[in-house]
Amino acid sequence: MKRREFIKTSALSALSLSTMGFCRSGATGKSGLSNVVISKEDKMINNELSIDSSSLAKALDKAVQYLYNTDHHVTAWKKIVKPGEIIGLKVNCLSKRGITHIELVQVIIERLKEAGVKENDIIIWDRLNMDLDDAGYQINTGKKGIRCFGNDVTGFEYDLEVFGSAGSRISKILTQLCDGVINIPVLKDHSIAGITSALKNMFGAIHNPNKYHLNTGNPYIADVNAFPSIRKKIRLHICDAIEVQYHGGPSFMPQWRTNYGGIIVSKDPVALDTIGLDIIETKRKEFGFGTLSAENRAPLYIRTASDVSHQLGTSDKKLIKVSII
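and the corresponding structure tokens:
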């Protein structure tokens, strides 16, 4: 089945405030640590950039089962969603090939359906219909099949949500249509913000993201994620690290991308981005680039997101359990 046809037809426990690691309720395991699971499969993507869907599905299933401590992926997904809920899939479609892979979204859709979510209760969304269409998704606003559309279809709330230095109108897809959201960002370099991953992906849920790129996005990216309507709706972060771009982002630059063959899953976006940053920095060193700090674009917003005023997760590596499976 072609990718367009598929979409069309199926279409921390309380931590001391003296540390800089804070976690939202539910983001930590029994140990009090934030769990980040990196699931890799050697055959997920080959040198011709073809993706093996079965390897991708295996990696995702392993990650979700491990994160939720279950013996079967369906049991894990039933802890995330419930039948009758409308679930949004927040993708990233702004960079040609450097986007959320449709193959990953296909697997997530199948898992949602296995957990009892109806097709028409699944909404793939991003900023604009044009972005989704350019990325290969089939726009669908109808009453049958997987729904897929941008913020330009529903518009934004009239009133601003304000936190810290940020004030934005939020997409009605998130506020009015979705009971919960699965955040599906891409791990890549960002010329202004250092990296883009779980936290920055939610810029696609507001009307004025371009306003918040000063000072490498700090504190604005953290502030936006602290908007109540955003932080209360996100159930899980599934980061697409099938390919990783370590320089020149966010636009797709093939000379600076590499196959990573991984999926990164967490309930804590700050912990996920902290580990994602390590991956980017490791790849930059491997391919002869300096650190993001040396280029004056260290993603300081990640640490800000963990501070006492935001409490979006933890950036303290001593409080993050990384499991590579």
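(Above: one complete record from the training split.) The chain has eleven helices and twelve strands.
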